[in-house]
Amino acid sequence: MIGRMRVNLRSAFFLLVLCTFLVCFAFWTRCTRDIKEGPSREGLVSSKSDFDGNLRFVNRGAQAYVQDFQVNQYREIECLINHEYTVPCRREDDEVYMPFSFIQKYFEVYGSIENMDGYDRFEFSHSFSKVFPPSDTYSPDGKFMSFEHYNVEVRDRVKCITATEGVPLSTQWNPEGHYYPIQIAQFALSHYSKYLSEGKPDVDILAHGSKEDVVDWSVPDDCEIRSVRDKIRGSNVLELSSPDSIRSQGISLKVTEDANFAFAVDLRFITNGSISVAVKLDDSTFHIHYIFSKVLISSEGKDIYYGMGETRGKWIHLARDLDKDFMKGLMQKFPKSKKTVKMNNIKILSITIRGRGWVDNITLASANHMDHFYDAANWLVNHQDTSSGGWPIMVARKLIPDIMELPPGWYSAMGQGQAMSVLVRAYLKSKNPRYLKAAVDGLRVFDVSSAQGGVKARFANTYDWYEEYPTTPSSFVLNGFIYSLLGLYDLKQVAEGTALTDVERIYNSGMKTLKALLLLFDSGTGTFYDLRHVILGIAPNRARWDYHTTHINQLLQLSIIDSDPIFTKTAARWMDYMKGKRAPHN
Ligand SMILES: *[C@@H]1O[C@H](CO)[C@@H](O)[C@H](O)[C@H]1NC(C)=O
Ligand SMILES: *[C@@H]1O[C@H](CO)[C@@H](O)[C@H](O)[C@H]1NC(C)=O
């Protein structure tokens, strides 16, 4: 029986003990009671006196459990694993139960005891991540795949959303922090997709520059606030004057907000001012200060600082998610706070302005998705290398140390492609041609080989491949390649003239490669992340379940834009792998 289990995972499942050793005695006892005394689920979970006044059951110690256990014919049996080591198991007649803690490690499967409608049950899964099928239609100004489910900024490897640029600062591969174009593009695409799926946000306007707004503010003696006409913007704004120092009282507005944390303001300062938000968590009050400084984020006691750069004298549109800013601020001091602080316990108490300048359009809303989207699209326009059209990645990447390494300044086909998906959407929404131009310029890197600082690899000297990590030798990372193709597809829908000719050529040649090589990534039980095993003759790099799921989500998206059955058929088989089904064997 044990021998058979090695071969067949599903039969193993029927053998397994549905709990870890710690809880299994109690669990078994309750199961057998359930069978003997009739199907009383309520009885199983309700309090101790429920077993027909059977106090023996309630009060007995471990000894009694062991007795019950033996009465029910569960006996210990040693399981010899592959003739190598043993695991203590249980036997009931011909059935053998192995501890789930063993099964879990041995088969890389998942399970936990969950409470469902008042009774415990054991939930077993072959894999853990979730496939999000895309919508039935695709358009280059629509949602991007199912990115509305992404929350890029809450990831641990995002240090903060900077107030200078409004985009994530990544600590991946470099704890100092760097701007990672792929992360920035994903931040944009997730907010864009959220905007489309959530619809227009709830917006509470706290001040929009009119005379009536002035009365709501509390103004100490040394400060002033009034409504004036702004010549640059052609609208009424609030003019403020107060001492600069963060220690001064400042001009403030009381608010009570415990749900809508998306804050936005238009501001223009001529002294070293700041705008601060008081945030209450449980019984403590913290302050988030947006200041004119190049230091991106810092925290001191209960004060969290975000630098907006040093551009005074100009109008700035600042859009912040206060709950996320607060969380990232706490994590500066207490790296584990994300797991312990419940963000739904926070409240916004007030907004305080210090310094001399003007403000307008102060709002708290359910979301600022489009502000974040445009911040990221603008970042891409402003940080593109104009000579190459690439978005350089300024950290070293060691895919395989000493063998597949990239020094800082590399380009990624995935970065180029995801940037295109952002820029095409920004262009279609805003009609501003500078977004389209940046997307078209981003194409050039696709024609330059990895060895020459571009992203183009060749497989078997026949097929063009666009590299997420353009190492030499090539690595052929599947998900990054597909993301690059989706970006090229988006651009192909809007490009004209020679840009259209170029993008069609690059896209078509990539799709031809994908169809020819896709099944090299199919292991029969899962997928491979890259082709290092083929290229270097080393062990394959199996895609972990979330990457496997990404592969599936990508194929489902491709099946909407390309009718070749390879995409639907392969996606269906790869979804089966997630439930433990395998490709047939000989
Ligand atoms: C502006 O004020 C902030 C906060 O008080 C401070 O950190 C920063 O150094 C000041 N900058 C200048 C140029 O004085
Ligand atoms: C405030 O918002 C309105 C409407 O979007 C806009 O026209 C105005 O220019 C904004 N004010 C400033 C100072 O940017």
UniProtKB/TrEMBL annotation:
Signal keyword on record: yes
Major location (coarse): membrane
Pathway noted in the entry: Glycan metabolism; heparin biosynthesis; Glycan metabolism; heparan sulfate biosynthesis
Catalytic activity: [heparosan-N-sulfate](n) = [heparan-N-sulfate](n)
Enzyme Commission number(s) of this protein: 5.1.3.17
Places the protein is found: Endomembrane system; Membrane
Any one GO molecular function term: heparosan-N-sulfate-glucuronate 5-epimerase activity
Keywords: Isomerase, Membrane, Signal, Signal-anchor, Transmembrane, Transmembrane helix
Domain D-glucuronyl C5-epimerase beta-sandwich: 235-356
Main enzyme class: isomerase
Signal peptide: 1-26
Superkingdom as given in the UniProt entry: Eukaryota
Membrane topology: Single-pass membrane protein; Single-pass type II membrane protein
Domain spans labelled D-glucuronyl C5-epimerase C-terminal: 384-575
Family: Belongs to the D-glucuronyl C5-epimerase family.
Protein's name according to its UniProt entry: heparosan-N-sulfate-glucuronate 5-epimerase
